[in-house]
Amino acid sequence: MNHQRAVIIGCAALLTAPALLAAGWGGGQGSSFNQSRSSSRASESHASSPSRGNRSGSGVIYKRHDIAVPRPNRAPAPTPALRERPTLAYPKRDERGAAISKPAAGVPPRQHVSVARNMALVRNIQGQQGRENVRQHFYWHNEGGVRYWHYSDRGGVHWYGFYHGPTFYWTRLSGNRWWWFDARFNRWAYWWSGFWWWPGPQGVEYVYVDNAYYPYQDPGVVTVQNPEVQPPPSADPAPGEGQVFTSPDGTRMVQIFGEHSDAFLYDKTGPEPKYLAHLGQGVEQVRFELSGDKKTLRILADFKDGNYSLFDAGGASLEAPQVSSDDMPGPPPTEVPPAPGTPPAQ
Q: What's the whole-model pTM score?
């Protein structure tokens, strides 16, 4: 997946597991799931001999799963400086004069939890801002093993660089929030309750999980997606083998069979079922949804590993819409911290 693109799943384009229940898919967790599976199996039948189809295709299945996250507390409107793309000249040497060889973090630093939840450290940092106010100057600190440097730029904005493992990262403390600039997606993210959040457009909060930003959805969940290559097997299921699920309108049939629980989709509009697509391995059950006008059919495959996938009536795995990072505004920076040793501004 291109790291320059943020996977953003729109609520209108994706039904999460809770929404699928409300939309009439049936199933879910616990007894509701089992009841749905029982009712689905009531419609199972032995397939007539399906015609052998062409097995061309990418074999890419977009698996999805839900992750529980806390309810976001939207940050105050960013200051003008937090709407700019910073370019920082990182220090070349540490407080002991040793060369700094560690690279800057390229992904939102999860280890920031050790800073944000260290209230004694946070109080000391807040107190330093009144004393360490020489602009364009570095102040080095080591508190309880937490190594960091404090820098006040030309405009009086306070920056904090933290070491962690093989990397370091710059943050800013603004509006009682920690902010970090994600250069991959060209956006500022703020730290809240164990996650990095992006205050997106139209008031939507996006949370960083699984290497991408996803929109928060009530009640405390985001749905993430990962592509998985699953080439279809060479053999078709034999007639009568496995489980067969039929769509409510009778136009589609899915047969699950074999030691790998492969799922095959067939078109039933003709005199004999016609092979359309392989829906993946490790499939536990299949559900269908017809649109209100009965013209659009979508297929949901539940996998044994807890993931699920959505497919159109032709068997194409539905990928979430994507938004390029190029669409995000990023004015040029106005301040670049100098290297250590530069005389403070007078």
A: 0.61
